[in-house]
Amino acid sequence: MGLYPEIEPYDQGMLDVGDGNLVYWETCGNPQGKPAVMLHGGPGSGCTPGQRRFCDPAAYRIVLLDQRGCGRSTPHASAYDTDMSVNTTDHLLADLELLRHHLGIERWLVWGASWGSVLALRYTQTRPGVVSELVLTGVATGSNAEVTLLTHGLGRIFPQDFARLLAELPEDTDRTGNLAAVCNRLLESPDPAVRERAARAWTDWETATIPAPPRSVARYEDPAFRMGFARTVTHYFGNDHFLGPGNDEGVVLRDAPLLRGVPGTLVQGSLDLGNLLGIAWRLHHAWPDSELIVVDEAGHDFGAPGVVDALVAAMDRYARREDTRTRQEAGRR
User: Fold this and answer.
1) Residue 330: its pLDDT value, please?
2) How far is CA 116 from CA 34, 46, 200, in A?
């Protein structure tokens, strides 16, 4: 099956979302098609042209954006004076609503990868009625247990790489605590050399524990991307993903009943190390309207062949699904 051919945006812009932030957005495909918004990972990765290709351009009005602080959005998190206090989950959710209204969209399918799946799930839970379907891959829910897994847990599997990460932390660091929060404090240091060492240490750790294609690893050689990405990821990981109290086991999983009535597809690589907590399986069983597709021999990579095929098939299927709620609302008007 594979991806659809490369396409270019027919419209794009910078949306003023407040707090001095401008969010880059673009639309591709069919202006009269079914709206679908593609949420990138990270947090802080930015959207890519490849994400346009999961949707049939004849069937979908495809919306992409760079979330606050990354990609072409301004100010960029790599700049030391960028205020990260106005970059939280609630801010990103509000930005999505501003963009939806700006584009005149009533309801849209939401596609999310990795962190994008956390954002997509929370958006659906907190904005009832605006999401027609969900398509998620590299599924995460942003719980503190997942943050612990991605540091201490994987440290047992990759001890040499974990030792290198720990070696970059201050000697008085609590090695049993939230290591992302420790790295984030270093990334907020007024000393550029301290910030750069911390950014390199964090991205080296990500590279070691999340096997990725060369194109993804190469982006860490861009100093601005490396700094912005590391600063944003640790900002979220170190602050409970800004999901509020009760996030040890997961606010998103706790609120899974709020997803009732929204059809969804979860596409998960069998070798994705996030599976060690069974997050995708637990979410699927708490959300009766979802389907779980496990792809053998694939990890945390939405570009893997089997994962691509499953994602494209889901998008094709939802393109043909009639959104009865939108039809009913149009009839009432």
Assistant:
1) 47
2) 20, 10, 23
